[in-house]
Amino acid sequence: MKNRVRIKDIAEKAGVSTGTVDRVLHNRGKVAPDVKENVLAVIEELGYQRNLLASALAYNHNLNIVSLLPNPEADPYWKQSQAGVQEAIRAVQHYGFNLTQLFFEPNKPMDFSRLAKQVLNNPPDGLLFPPIFFQESLWLLNQCQEKNIPTVIINTDIKGGKPLSYIGQDSYQSGVLGARLLDFGLNDGQTVCILNLDYETKDAHHLIYKERGFKDYFKNSLEKKIEILSVNFESFHEKTKLQIFSKKLLAENPKLGGIFITNSRAYKFIDSIADKKSYAGIKVVGFDLLASNIDYLKSNAINFLINQNAMNQGYLGIMSLFKHLVQKESVERQQYLPLDIVVKENIEYYIERNKVGIII
């Protein structure tokens, strides 16, 4: 049986003090580059494996992590991200990971900014949030960079701010995928609608990239001539207004053959249609495994759901902070999750997977 490698063994072979080895292992304090390189080479040669739990206890420091998410009661999509965050914290809390959960109203940038300032007034060891408000999120990322707060962003990637990592879908490719799925059911000369049911769509970069990918697919397709209609509707939470909007959309576009709803609110659009026969033959592609979306998928009112793995986003976000803060390992800047194509024939698999909290 191989003897356990001790810090003392590394120090003796590298010709340095145990304190120097400790600084290299925990990436703290100043160590000359050539000395650090030599110590790391010895660590690799001897096959040293750090006992993370013992190290965390020796460090005698609890790590305070903040998750800043949209209110899941206002938008059920975020319940999945919250569940992923909580699952990850349960897995690593014995390493001293403490979680503070903050929730902002998804339609109020000022509420996000208020909580962001609250976070910065008592800087955490790590932060996770979705940058759904571009300017406010960029400001927060820049502040975190100045204060050396490792930050993971989920769901929406933005340029600038230098977060530790982004975890979520490749928005451009999800737009391409949505177009391809609809293309199977479209005929030459028909119209297809990109429908954004969201707030502040002009600054929602993930929606912009989805739309670009969607349009590029049809622009590069030579088999059919498809007219693309792009529509933003921010009053989706007002039932009467949405009913009027959906009725008008269907009436004014008799050649409408498909609708690409760019987020998890496909069910809201279907709910708003009083006469379900009025959209007979129109193919619908939406996102995410919300209960209402699943019901409409099973009844063929929605043809495809693209699963953005919201639970995994939350889970991997916390685990990326753990990897950076405790394991002292590098984290990829972009961690794209698979875009699962869900239909009624395979939905039960995803339902069962989520019930047992499987994280892939």
Task: List descriptors.
Rossmann fold, alpha/beta, elongated, 14 helices, single chain
Task: Please describe what this structure looks like.
The strands form 2 sheets. The protein has a 6-stranded parallel sheet, with helices on both faces. Strands 7-6-8-9-10-12 form a 6-stranded mixed sheet, with helices on both faces. The chain has 3 domains: 7-49, Orthogonal Bundle (434 Repressor (Amino-terminal Domain)); 61-169 and 310-337, Response regulator (Rossmann fold), CATH 3.40.50.2300; 171-307, Rossmann fold (3-Layer(aba) Sandwich), CATH 3.40.50.2300. It is α/β, with parallel strands linked by helices. It has helices at 7-14, 18-26, 33-46, 52-59, 77-92, 109-121, 134-146, 171-183, 205-219, 239-252, 266-272, 291-298, 310-325, 347-355; strands at 63-70, 97-104, 126-129, 151-154, 165-168, 191-196, 227-232, 256-261, 283-287, 304-307, 334-336, 340-342. The chain has 14 helices and 12 strands. The protein is 45% helix and 17% strand.
